[in-house]
Every structure is written in structure tokens, then in C-alpha cells.
Design brief:
This protein has 291 residues and is an alpha/beta fold. It contains 10 helices and 14 strands. The strands form 3 sheets. A 6-stranded mixed β-sheet has the order 10-9-8-11-14-13, with helices on both faces. Strands 1-2-3-5-4 form a 5-stranded mixed barrel. Strands 6-7 form a two-stranded antiparallel ribbon.
Length: 291
């Protein structure tokens, strides 16, 4: 049975790419009753009919999935944060990193509007996040700085681009592909947002990979266990292997390698404080959930 990947979901149809052809498929009736619904990004088996239409027969196992937008098997997320307007927020960035790393989606930190001068210690932040093991790409869509590096990271990957409103996501995509020539709000329509969000999800082919836009950051909820949060950040995870207690939350436990790294200046105190805030948030969510 032939296999392919769903690259677009529109009005009950699933568009499956199999090598160089795209097959318009409907889902078998059983998918309407299954808990797992076909999503853009799903690898699948399909049955081809005489008119070159098809039917989805089976979905292959997923590596991850997002609720908003409904998309799965994502390789990486470009986390776009502006240097100014809106101001760079490490608190929000650390939230993004916690969630995407937990989902096993590789985060790429893109700091936009680097052409705007500001006394904001941005170079210090760039070094701190690089030291923690993250790829950080400073960009300026106006000056085309960092654009070629962004193009390289798309190759052979499924990527999502996310960030606050106004950070320059659409300007970035315009700079990546001038043929798009999209205005600020038009990019949402082109990438399946706005009024089409509920019925139109599409992966856009770009630089030998696929790119999907995501809705605003407000849809990001921290849904994980405490022990999962303790190992979500890559540098925390690596250090936690040396903690005295298995399942160390890096809060009040003795002989904690993460706390020691904070004292030694290896992990920034600011990042660690943000982590403690999110640990408390997870605790409160669990208390409300289970009473």
C-alpha cells in the first residue's frame, strides 16, 4: 500500500504528498470515531482510486503534535523574539523552551529587529542561551542579516514559526522569499491562519523543507509533570544525571547539580528563577486538576 505525508487539511480533504505527486484523499469513516484524527504532518498509508483520488487507510506513529495549529511530526520551532517593540522577554522565551523541548521539538531562537539600537543587554542573553546549548540566530529582515542562516535550518525539516504578535514573523518570511510579497496580515491567510484556521492547515514548501505558521503565544499551555519539567531544558537534563536524588526537581533537594551550576554561574540566575516560577505553576495546575 502506498505511503505519503499529509501536507494540507482543507474542508474534509487530506492532501497527501507521495514523492512528486499530491493525492487528494478522504478519510475512512472509522477516523471520525477514532480519538486520533489525521493532521497535517501525519505520515500515512492510502489507497489510490482510478480517478487519482484516494482514501486514508492508516496513520503511522507520530513523534509529537500541537493542538494549535493541529499539526504533527514537527522537527523544529523557530522562536521569534524581537529585540525591541515588543521588548525581548526572557520569561516568555523560557516558557517556549520548556514546552517545545518537552514535546521533543528542536527550538531555534531567532532574535529579530537587531537593526534597532537598544541598551538591553541582548548580546549577554545571546551568549547565555548559546552556552545553554541553544542555536541563537540574530536577524534583521530590513538589512537581510541572518536570513541565509535561517534558510539553511529549514532544509529537510518540518518547521513552525511562532512568537508574539509584532515580533516580525511575516517580515522574516518576506525576507526569506521576496516572491511572497506579503503584508503583515496577509501572511496569516497564506499560512492557514485567521478566518481559515479551523478548516485550513497547510505545510508550505520552503527551502527543501516545510514551514507552518502557528497562532499567538497565548495558546501555549504548560501541560507536563513536575519530573518532566525538571528535565525539559537540555542543560538541566544533562546536569540532572549527577543529582544525588533520582527525580530531583532542583528546588530544595541537597546535592543538586542544577542548583550548583546556578551558584557557579554556569546557568543564569534569571533562567533558574523562571524555572521555579513554572514549577509552581505546574503544581497549582495539578492541584486544581485533582482537587
Amino acid at each position: 500500500m502506498p505511503k505519503g505525508q499529509i501536507i494540507k487539511v482543507l474542508a474534509g480533504f487530506y492532501y497527501v504528498k507521495d514523492q512528486n505527486q499530491i493525492i487528494q484523499c478522504r478519510a475512512r469513516g472509522r477516523f471520525r470515531n477514532d480519538e486520533i484524527k489525521p493532521l497535517a504532518g501525519d505520515y500515512c498509508e492510502y489507497e489510490l482510486r482510478e480517478n487519482n483520488d484516494g482514501y486514508l487507510m492508516e496513520l503511522l506513529p507520530r513523534t509529537n503534535s500541537l493542538i494549535r495549529p493541529p499539526i504533527c511530526n514537527i522537527d523544529q520551532a523557530l522562536l521569534v523574539f524581537s529585540r525591541k517593540d515588543p521588548d525581548f522577554s526572557t520569561l516568555l522565551l523560557d516558557k517556549f523552551l520548556l514546552i517545545y523541548e518537552h514535546l521533543q521539538i528542536e527550538p531555534i531562537i531567532c532574535i529579530s529587529k537587531m537593526d534597532i539600537e537598544s541598551d538591553d543587554h541582548i548580546e549577554q542573553y545571546i551568549q547565555e542561551y548559546r552556552q545553554a546549548g541553544y542555536t541563537v540566530i540574530p536577524i534583521s529582515s530590513k538589512k537581510k542579516e541572518g536570513i541565509e542562516q535561517i534558510k539553511d535550518v529549514f532544509k529537510d525539516k518540518i518547521s513552525v514559526i511562532t512568537g508574539q504578535s509584532g515580533v516580525g514573523k511575516s517580515s522574516l518570511i518576506n525576507a526569506l522569499d521576496v516572491k511572497l510579497n506579503l503584508e503583515t496580515n496577509e501572511i496569516s491567510k497564506a499560512l492557514g491562519r485567521g478566518k481559515h484556521t479551523t478548516r485550513h492547515v497547510e505545510l508550505i514548501e520552503m527551502f527543501s523543507g516545510y514551514v507552518a505558521d502557528t497562532p499567538g503565544f497565548s495558546s501555549l499551555e504548560i501541560d507536563m509533570e513536575l519530573v518532566e519539567a525538571a528535565k525539559a531544558y537540555r542543560d538541566f537534563h544533562k546536569l540532572s544525571e549527577g543529582c544525588k536524588f533520582r527525580g530531583c526537581l532542583h528546588v530544595s533537594e541537597p546535592d543538586c547539580k542544577v542548583k550548583q551550576a546556578v551558584e557557579d554561574g554556569i546557568i543564569s540566575k534569571e533562567r533558574y528563577d523562571h524555572y521555579l516560577q513554572y514549577i509552581q505553576l505546574i503544581k497549582k495546575n495539578k492541584e486544581r486538576q485533582y482537587g
